[in-house]
Amino acid sequence: MSAPTTGLRPSSLSWASVLEFWRSIGQTDAVRAAPSDRLRADGVVRFFFVGLMAVAVLPSTAAANGVTVLDDRGRTVQLAEPAERIVSLAPHLTELLFAVGAGDRIVATVAYADYPEAARSIPRVGTATQLDLERLLALSPDLVIAWSSGSPRGALERLEKLGFTVYYSEPGDFEGIAADLRRLGQLAGQEESATTKARAFLDIITELQDRYSMRPEVTVFYQVWDQPLMTVNDQHLIGRAIALCGGRNLFGHLDTLVPRPGHEAVIAADPETIVSGGPGEDRPDWLAEWQRWPQLTAVQRNNLFFIPPSLLQRHTPRIAEGTGMLCEALETARKRRVEPPR
Hints:
The chain has helices spanning 15-24, 29-32, 37-56, 91-99, 133-138, 153-161, 174-187, 191-212, 237-244, 263-269, 285-289, 297-300, 319-335; strands spanning 67-70, 76-79, 86-88, 106-108, 143-147, 166-169, 218-223, 247-249, 273-276, 304-306. By secondary structure, the chain is α/β, with parallel strands linked by helices. The protein has two domains: 15-198, Rossmann fold (3-Layer(aba) Sandwich); 213-335, Rossmann fold, CATH 3.40.50.1980. The model is unreliable at 1-63 (pLDDT under 50).
C-alpha cells in the first residue's frame, strides 16, 4: 500500500528538485509532441515557474484538528481545513462533488464532465486518462479527486511527490457511492449536505431492493459497448443492480469485471431480456442490431430495453434512477411471459 497522503507539503522547493520532477515527466505525450528543442526549453522554463508558484502557495503543515478521511484505497487523506480549490479527474467525480454541494469549489475537471449543466462551464485539464499537468499545477488546487482505476497513475504519483493531496475514488457498490458522498462532503466542508444526500440515496436503493429482489428471476444480458461487444460480471456495480432487481446476469459468473463474450455466446445463452446503454444519452442504436437474431427470446418478446448510460454507467446518486428503470424493465419482461395453458 502506498504511503498515506497527509496534506503536509514542503514550504520550499529547490530548483534541482523541480528540474528532477520535469525530467521525470520528460517522456509525456505533451513533451514528445513539441515541434522543436526551443519550444521544449520554453516549456521547461514555464514549468519551473508554475511548479514553484504552485508549491509556494500551499500550506506547510496540516492542523491537528483538520479534516481526515480514508479514501477507497485505504489511504489517509488529511487537510488542514476544508478544500476551497478542487480538481476533479473524472465525470462521475465532478457529479459527486456537485451532489454534496461543492460544485462551486471545482476549479477544473476533465472532458465529458457534463452533469449537472453547471459542470459544462468548468475549465478542463485533459481527459479521464490523460492530464495536462502544467495547466493543473497552475491552478494550485488544495485537493485532487482521482478515479483510482481510470486516472493516469504516473501523473498522480508525480503530483503526490510534489506534495499535492490526492483522494482516490473507486466505489464498487451502492454503499461505496454513499461513502464517497460522505467523505467528499467532509473534505469540502459540506458534511451535513453530504450525509443527507447519502442517506436519501441509500433509502431509494433499499426501497428498490425490498420491492424487486425476490421477484421471479429474469435472465439478463447487459450491453456496455458494441465493438467489441462488452458486458459486466456480478462484481460490477451494474451486475449488483441486476441482482437487486431480481435478474440473473448471464455472464455474471465470469472473473473479468467487463467480459467480451461475443454475439455467439449471447445467442447461445438466449437471454430473456437485453438491456443496453448506447453511444449517447438518447441513442438506443445498439438494440436494433439484435433484431438480426429473431430466434432470441428477448427479441421475440420485444424485451429490448434502453437505459441512458449516465444513469447506470456512472457511479453517482443518479444510478438509483437507472436501477429503478432497470427494475421496471425486468418487471415488464415478467408480464410478457406466455402463461402455460391450464
